[in-house]
């Protein structure tokens, strides 16, 4: 299926949950906020949020400094 991730179209195999996709991309879910089709998804729902063809996903990373 095709999913636009942070503005870039990517081909992803099979039906996946948001949690599975983040693991596949090696993204630490504790350090990001995800917006799927313009709706912010709560971290507790990542494992049950199914991704569909032509979805748009924004992954926002937190950066600390000091």
Give the arrangement of secondary structure elements.
Elements: E1 2-5, E2 8-11, H1 18-24, E3 32-36, E4 39-41, E5 55-61
Parallel strand pairs: 1-5
Antiparallel strand pairs: 1-2, 3-4, 3-5
Give a verbal description of the structure:
The longest helix is centred in the first third of the chain and has 7 residues. A hairpin with a 2-residue loop joins strand 1 and strand 2. A five-stranded mixed beta sheet has the order 2-1-5-3-4, with no helix packed on it. Helices cover 11% and strands 35% of the residues. By secondary structure, the protein is mostly beta strands. The chain starts with a strand and ends in a 5-residue tail after the last strand. The protein is globular, with a radius of gyration of 12 Å. It is built from one helix and five strands; from the N terminus they run ββαβββ. It has a single domain, classed as Ubiquitin-like (UB roll) (Roll), CATH 3.10.20.
Instruction: Please tell me how large the radius of gyration is.
Output: 12 Å
Oligomer: single chain
Tell me the CATH topology. Ubiquitin-like (UB roll)
Number of domains: 1
CATH class: Alpha Beta
Q: Could you tell me the mean pLDDT?
A: 93
Low-confidence stretches: none
* Through-space gap between termini: 40 Å
Strand content: 25-35%
Strand order of the largest sheet: 2-1-5-3-4
* Separate helix tally: 1
Please provide the ordered H/E string of secondary-structure elements.
EEHEEE
The count of DSSP E runs of length 2 or more, i.e. the number of strands, is 5
Helix percent reads 10-25%
C-alpha geometry: globular
Sheet with the most strands? 5 strands, mixed
């Amino acid at each position: 299926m095709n999913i636009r991730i942070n503005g870039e179209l990517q081909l992803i195999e099979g039906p996946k949950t948001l949690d599975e996709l983040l693991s596949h991309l090696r993204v630490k879910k504790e350090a990001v906020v995800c917006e799927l089709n313009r709706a912010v998804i709560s971290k507790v729902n990542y494992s049950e949020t199914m991704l569909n063809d032509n979805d748009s996903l924004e992954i926002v990373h937190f950066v600390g400094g000091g």
